[in-house]
C-alpha cells in the first residue's frame, strides 16, 4: 500500500505557512507520522485569510491534515526538555526558521545530532543557510524576483505573480525529494544528515533554460516569447461570455487540426510567422470573442487540437478526468482536498484525517 511506504517514520514539523507544512503533508500521505510543533502563538496560517466558525482558516486545515499538533514554548526549560525528548525519537526534523534561530533556542546541528545521530534535519528557509541573503526577510514574490523568474513571466506590460505561490510549492517538493534521499542514504550509512534548502533556489532550479538564453542572446522581450503570449497558437483567448480558452498547438499536426476545425485553411501556413504574431493574434481574438466557451468546447474538444476551456476553481473538483483519477475529494469538514497525486500499483493515498491537537506528554509517550 502507498500509505505503507513510510510507515513507522516519525517526522517533527517545526515550520509555518505553506512550504514546510506542505512537505510534511506529502510525507504523511506516504505513511509517515507527523507531529507539528507550534509556539504558544501558533502558526500564523491559522488566521491568515477567511476563517471558519472555529476561528481557523481552511488553508491551515488543508496543509496540516493527517498531523498531530503540539504546542511547546521552546524558550522555556520545560518546552526545551519536551522537544529534546521528541528529537530523540524522531527520524526527520523539518524546520522553517531563518538561519540561526534554532541555534539560539539551543538546538543547533551539533546538539540535534548529539541527541539523535540518525536524525535527518531539513532546514527550509527563504535564501538558504549561507550567503549575504541568509538572514534576509522574504516571501514568494521576492524569491521569484531575485531568481529572474518573475521578470520572465507574463506579457510585455508587466511581470505576473503566480498563485498558488510558486517558490513555496517548489520548495516543498524539493524538501520531500531531499528528505527521501537522505533517508535512503541513512539506510546504508546508519547516520543522519543535514539538508539546507532555499525557497528562492527551488525556483532558481527551474530557470536554467531562461538563464542560458539570456546569457547567449540577452534578456528576451516577453512579447517575443512563445510562452508569454507572443505566439497566436499558444495563448489564452477571451470568449463571448467572458470566459477563457487555452490553445497550445505547438506541433504542426495540432495546428492543422485546429485550423481544420475552424475551417480556416488560410491560417495553416501562418504558424511560422515571426513572433510576436500580432496580426494573427488579433484575428484569433476576434474569432474567439464571437462564441461562448461552451460553443468553443463543443467544436474544438473533438478535434484533438490541444484546446482546453480555462476552468474556474469551483469547476475543477467535479471535472470528469479528476473524478476518474480520484485525487480530489470533499472532506467532512467541507475542504476540497488534493492528496499526493501518485499511483503505486494502481493505488492512491488514503483519505486524510483531520488534524488533531494533543499535549506534548501524550505524544511523547506514544512514540516508542
From TrEMBL:
SUPFAM superfamilies, per this entry?
Answer: CoA-transferase family III (CaiB/BaiF) (SSF89796)
Report which residue ranges the record marks as coiled coil. Answer: none
Kindly list the GO molecular function terms attached to this UniProt entry. catalytic activity
Entries under Gene3D superfamilies matching the protein: Crotonobetainyl-coa:carnitine coa-transferase, domain 1 (3.40.50.10540), formyl-coa transferase, domain 3 (3.30.1540.10)
Superkingdom of the organism of origin:
Bacteria
| InterPro entries reported in the protein's UniProt record | CoA-transferase_III, CoA-Trfase_fam_III, CoA-Trfase_III_dom3_sf, CoA-Trfase_III_dom_1_sf
Question: Which PANTHER family does its entry note?
Answer: ALPHA-METHYLACYL-COA RACEMASE (PTHR48228:SF5), SUCCINYL-COA--D-CITRAMALATE COA-TRANSFERASE (PTHR48228)
Could you tell me what this protein is called?
A: Alpha-methylacyl-CoA racemase
The scientific name of the source species is Paramagnetospirillum magnetotacticum MS-1
Amino acid at each position: 500500500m502507498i500509505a505503507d511506504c513510510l510507515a513507522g517514520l516519525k517526522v517533527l514539523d517545526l515550520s509555518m505557512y505553506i512550504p514546510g507544512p506542505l512537505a510534511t503533508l506529502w510525507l504523511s500521505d506516504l505513511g509517515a507520522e507527523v507531529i507539528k510543533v507550534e509556539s504558544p502563538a501558533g502558526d500564523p496560517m491559522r488566521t491568515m485569510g477567511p476563517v471558519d466558525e472555529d476561528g481557523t482558516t481552511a488553508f491551515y486545515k488543508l496543509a496540516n491534515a493527517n498531523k498531530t499538533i503540539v504546542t511547546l514554548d521552546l524558550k522555556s526549560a520545560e518546552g526545551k526538555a519536551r522537544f529534546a525528548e521528541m528529537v530523540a525519537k524522531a527520524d526527520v526534523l523539518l524546520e522553517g526558521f531563518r538561519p540561526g534561530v534554532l541555534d539560539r533556542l539551543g538546538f543547533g546541528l551539533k546538539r540535534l545530532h548529539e541527541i539523535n545521530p540518525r536524525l535527518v534535519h531539513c532546514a527550509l528557509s527563504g535564501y538558504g543557510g549561507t550567503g549575504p541573503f541568509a538572514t534576509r526577510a522574504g516571501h514568494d514574490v521576492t524569491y521569484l524576483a531575485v531568481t529572474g523568474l518573475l521578470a520572465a513571466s507574463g506579457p510585455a506590460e508587466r511581470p505576473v505573480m503566480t498563485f498558488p505561490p510558486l517558490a513555496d510549492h517548489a520548495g516543498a517538493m524539493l524538501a520531500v525529494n531531499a528528505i527521501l534521499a537522505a533517508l535512503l542514504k541513512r539506510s546504508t550509512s546508519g547516520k543522519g544528515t543535514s539538508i539546507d534548502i532555499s525557497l528562492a533556489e527551488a525556483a532558481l532550479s527551474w530557470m536554467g533554460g531562461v538563464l542560458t538564453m539570456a546569457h547567449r542572446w540577452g534578456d528576451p522581450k516577453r512579447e517575443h516569447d512563445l510562452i508569454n503570449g507572443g505566439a497566436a497558437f499558444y495563448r489564452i483567448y477571451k470568449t463571448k461570455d467572458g470566459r477563457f480558452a487555452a490553445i497550445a498547438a505547438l506541433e504542426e499536426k495540432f495546428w492543422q487540426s485546429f485550423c481544420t476545425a475552424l475551417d480556416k485553411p488560410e491560417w495553416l501556413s501562418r504558424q511560422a510567422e515571426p513572433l510576436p504574431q500580432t496580426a494573427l493574434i488579433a484575428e484569433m481574438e476576434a474569432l474567439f470573442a464571437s462564441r461562448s466557451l461552451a460553443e468553443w468546447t463543443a467544436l474544438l474538444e473533438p478535434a484533438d487540437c490541444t484546446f482546453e476551456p480555462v476552468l474556474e476553481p469551483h469547476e475543477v473538483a467535479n471535472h470528469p478526468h479528476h473524478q476518474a483519477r480520484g485525487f480530489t475529494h470533499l472532506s467532512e469538514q467541507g475542504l476540497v482536498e488534493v492528496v499526493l497525486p501518485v499511483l503505486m500499483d494502481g493505488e492512491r493515498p488514503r483519505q486524510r484525517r483531520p488534524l488533531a491537537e494533543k499535549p506534548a506528554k501524550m505524544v511523547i509517550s506514544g512514540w516508542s
